[in-house]
Design brief:
The structure is a homodimer. Chain A is an alpha/beta fold and about 450 residues long. Chain A has two domains: about 250 residues, Rossmann fold (3-Layer(aba) Sandwich), CATH 3.40.50.1100; about 160 residues, 3-Layer(aba) Sandwich (Rossmann fold), CATH 3.40.50.1100. Chain A contains 18 helices and 15 strands. In chain A, helix 6 runs parallel beside helix 8, helix 9 runs antiparallel to helix 10 and helix 11 packs across helix 12. Chain A is globular.
C-alpha cells in the first residue's frame, strides 16, 4: 500500500451530497424540545415563529438517515471543503509514540472553524424561505463570523448579539463580521426588552451566551422577515456538521484506516457530534466499536459534572426547554476561562448517547490545554484555537499511554479551528497569568437548584 | 474534459523536488551585489560572515536552472503544501466577466503567507551548518512569524527585530512569534550600536524596515554561531519561492490551462518572483508569452517611480549595495500606509526583467485595495491580506476590461496570504479613516538624491 500522505484530501466530487442524521440510528431517541409553559413537546407550528421552516423539519426529524444537501450549499462547500485529514507524523515522532495520530482540520476558512458548515446551511434555508435576515448570538466569535460570511454570500441581513466582554476583548472578530456586512451589537444591549431588564438589574455585567441568545430570539420573533439561528446545541446543527465525520470516514476508508479512539472537544456539541456521527452510527448498528471521548473544560463541565435534565436554553427563558446534560441555565464559567466551550448545556442527542454509556467524557484544565496548544503549534505548525486544543490535550495523553503500553492505536481527533483571534489567551499563558478554575460542588448545586420543574 | 474544480490540488508526491532558478534563463543577468567600500562584486567569502554558506552559494548561482530541495524541507512542505489553485467561480459570476480567474492561495498555514516557503529553507541551512540561531527583521510580521515557525521546527534560536510601530500596533503578531519560542525586539532598540545611534538621533521614531535590517545584521555578525536571514529582496528567496509558481504551473497544466495574464503584488518581490518564475522562464526561452503585471502600492512605488541603480539595502548602510529599482534607502512610506509592501527597493532579478521590458507594473491606492479586499472576502470567502489585495484589485480590473471587450482571458493571480492580523487596517477602512498617500516628485527626488556614487 502507498505510504499514508501527510494530508488526505478527498476529491471535490467526493464531498458528501447528503448529511447523515445520527438520530435515525438511535434506539433511545433524544428527548423532544418542550414548551416552557405547557410542558408539551414542541410542534412544528410552535417552532416556526423562531426558526426557518426547513430547519424546524430537520430539528424534528429523528427518522430519515440521510438528508440531501442542496446544490447551492454544496457549491459553497466547494469554496473551502473538502477539509484535510492530517496524519500528525511530526507530533508522533516528537512524542515517540507508536500510536498513529490523525486530525480532521476544519480551520482553513476565514471564519477559522467548522461553524461555517452549519452557517451556510442555515443562511440558505432562510434565503429560500424569502426571509430578509437572521439574528444570532456569538461568544468567542467563531459562529458570528461564520454566519456573517454565509449571510453575505446569500445577501441576507445579519444581526449578531455578541457577549459584551467578547465584543470588547475581541475587536478584530467584530471587524471581520463587519467586513462581511453584519451588524454587531454588544449584549446585553438596550435594543431588546430582555437586554434592558438585565442591564437594569446588573448594570456592569459583561454578558453571557444565555443572555445574548435571549436578545437574538426576541429580535427575531418581533421583527417581520427575521428568524433566529444558532451555531450549536441544536440537532439540526449536528446534522449539518455530520459533513465533518462523513468526509473524515471517507478519507480514512481510502487507506483502510480504522480509528480506535475518536476525540472531540465539546461545548454545545456541534463539532463532537459532527465528527463522530458516521462512526457512532456504525457503533449503534453494531458494525464497529470505537472509543469516543468528549473533552470539556474543567471550568464548564456539563458532561462530567452536570445533570441530565430538562433545562432552559437561555437566561431569559424564552426558548424551549431541552433535556440535556446541564450545569443550570444561570451557570457562568469563571471570567478566567479563555475561548469558547462555555455553554451551560449539551446537545440533546449527545446527551442521550452519553447517558447510554456510548461516549466517554473527560474534563481538562486550561493551563494544560494551552501547554498542549503551544506544543502542537511548534511541532505541527498550526496555531490551534483553545477550543480545539482540548482535543489535542487528550489526544496527546492517549498517545503517551500507547507509548507506555506499546500499543499501536489509531487516534483521530477534531482540530476545529485556528487561534488567530485567541492571542490574548496565548499572551496570558506566556505571561503566567492564565489560571485554572474548577467550580466547587456548592457552585454547581446552586446553579442546578433552579432547573425547571418538569414531570 | 472534466469541469475544472473549485480548487486544484496537486498530489503530495507532486510537490516540486527542485527549485527553479530563473536567473539561469536570463540573458541579462541581475547585477551582482557590490561591496559598499570597495565597489567590487561581493564574493562568497565576503558574504559568509552574514549569511549561511549554502544560501550564499544560492545567492551567487546564476547558472544552475534547478536546485534540489533537501528531503527535510520537502517533508516540512508536506505539512502545508501543496497549496491550492482556486478557480474564482464566485468572483467571475459576481463580476459578470467572461474572463476565467484563478488564484494560487498561499495563506493556509499559521504564518498566514507564502513567507514560510523560504523561512523553512533558510532555517534548514542554518541548522545544517551547525549554527545556534538566526536574526532577522520583520515589518508587517508575516516573515517574522514564518521564520519563528521554521526555527521552532529545527530547534534554532530566533531573534526578530520588529519595526517598533508594528510591534506596538500588532501585539498578536508578537504573541504568535513568542508561541513559537522567538525573541521579539522592537526596533530601533538599545541592543545594537546602530539602534542606539538611531534612538539618539530620532528619540521618538517608530522605526523602519531598513533600520531593523541594520540591527539584525549587526547582531548576526557580532554573535558567534548566528547568521542573518531575510524574507524578501534576495535572489535566494526568489529561488525558494519558485515552489509557488512551479506548483501553480503543474496544477494548471493538468487541465491544459494557459494563463494570458499573471498578476502578483510586489514589495521586495518574493511572491511575484516565485509565482512568475516558471512562466517567465518559458517567456525568456521563447516558448510562450504571458502578460505579467507587478502591482505595487502608490505610496511605495519602486518599479513605477523608482530609479534602477545601485543602492543601500538598509538604513545603517552595513549591507552590500544592490542594483535594483529603488526609491532611495532613506525613503519612508507614509504612516498611513497599511500592511507590508513598504521596502524601498526591489529584488535585483525582477529589476533587470522590468528594465528589459518583460514585466509590466502598476501602482494602486490603498482605499481601492481595501475596497477590492472586502469585495473579494464577501464573494470568495477568504479574508485577504492587504498585500495580496493589491493583486486582487488589478485582477478585478483586468476581468472588468474583459467584460467590456468580451475577451475570455485567463487570469492568474497570487493570493499571498490572509488578513487576520491586519484588522486595524480593515477597521480604518470601515470607519472611513484610511487615506491615500502618493509621494510627490520632490519627496522622491529628495530620497533618491542620496544614492551611493557607483561607477
Amino acid at each position: 500500500m502507498d505510504k499514508i500522505p501527510y494530508k488526505i484530501y478527498l476529491r471535490e466530487s467526493e464531498i458528501p451530497s447528503k448529511w447523515y442524521n445520527l438520530r435515525a440510528d438511535m434506539k433511545n431517541k433524544p428527548a423532544p424540545l418542550m414548551h416552557p409553559g405547557t410542558h408539551q413537546a414542541m410542534t412544528k407550528e410552535d417552532l416556526m415563529p423562531v426558526f426557518c421552516e426547513e430547519l424546524v423539519d430537520q430539528e424534528l426529524n429523528v427518522t430519515d438517515r440521510f438528508i440531501d444537501i442542496p446544490t447551492e450549499i454544496q457549491n459553497f462547500y466547494k469554496m473551502y471543503r473538502p477539509s484535510p485529514i492530517v496524519r500528525a507524523y511530526c507530533l508522533e515522532e516528537k512524542l515517540g509514540t507508536p500510536a498513529k495520530i490523525y486530525y480532521k482540520f476544519e480551520g482553513n476558512n476565514t471564519s477559522g472553524s467548522h461553524k461555517l458548515n452549519s452557517a451556510i446551511a442555515q443562511a440558505y434555508y432562510a434565503k429560500k424561505q424569502g426571509l430578509k435576515g437572521v439574528t444570532t448570538e456569538t461568544g468567542a466569535g467563531q459562529w458570528g463570523t461564520a454566519l456573517s460570511m454565509a449571510c453575505s454570500y446569500f445577501g441576507l441581513d445579519c444581526k449578531v448579539y455578541m457577549v459584551k466582554v467578547s465584543y470588547e476583548q475581541k475587536p478584530f472578530r467584530r471587524e471581520v463580521m463587519k467586513t462581511y456586512g453584519s451588524t454587531v451589537i454588544p449584549s446585553p444591549s438596550n435594543t431588546t426588552n430582555i437586554g434592558r431588564k438585565i442591564l437594569e438589574e446588573f448594570p456592569g455585567t459583561g454578558g453571557s451566551l444565555g443572555c445574548a441568545i435571549s436578545e437574538a430570539v426576541e429580535v427575531a420573533t418581533s421583527t417581520p422577515g427575521y428568524r433566529y439561528v444558532l451555531g450549536s446545541v441544536l440537532n439540526q446543527v449536528l446534522l449539518h456538521q455530520s459533513v465533518i465525520g462523513l468526509e473524515a470516514k471517507a478519507a480514512l476508508d481510502k487507506y483502510n484506516i480504522v480509528p480506535d479512539t475518536i476525540i472531540g472537544c465539546a461545548g454545545g456539541g456541534s463539532n463532537l457530534g459532527g465528527l463522530i456521527a458516521p462512526f457512532m452510527g456504525q457503533k449503534l448498528r453494531g458494525e464497529q466499536d470505537y472509543k469516543i471521548i468528549a473533552v470539556e473544560p474543567a471550568s464548564c463541565p456539563s458532561f462530567t459534572r452536570g445533570k441530565y435534565a430538562y433545562d432552559f436554553c437561555d437566561t431569559g427563558m424564552v426558548c424551549p426547554l431541552c433535556k440535556m446534560y446541564t450545569l443550570g441555565s444561570n451557570f457562568m464559567p469563571s471570567p478566567n476561562h479563555a475561548g469558547g466551550l462555555r455553554y451551560h448545556g449539551m446537545n440533546p442527542a449527545l446527551s442521550q448517547l452519553y447517558a447510554d454509556g456510548l461516549i466517554d467524557a473527560v474534563a481538562v484544565e486550561q493551563t494544560d490545554v494551552f501547554k498542549a496548544a503551544e506544543y502542537f503549534a511548534r511541532v505541527e505548525g498550526i496555531l490551534p484555537a483553545p477550543e480545539s486544543s482540548h482535543a489535542i490535550k487528550v489526544a496527546i495523553d492517549e498517545a503517551l499511554k500507547c507509548k507506555e503500553t506499546g500499543e499501536e492505536k489509531t487516534i483521530l481527533f477534531g482540530l476545529t479551528g485556528t487561534g488567530y483571534f485567541d492571542l490574548v489567551g496565548y499572551e496570558k499563558f506566556h505571561n503566567g497569568q492564565l489560571e485554572d478554575y474548577i467550580p466547587t460542588d456548592e457552585d454547581l448545586a446552586k446553579s442546578l437548584s433552579k432547573l425547571p420543574k418538569v414531570e
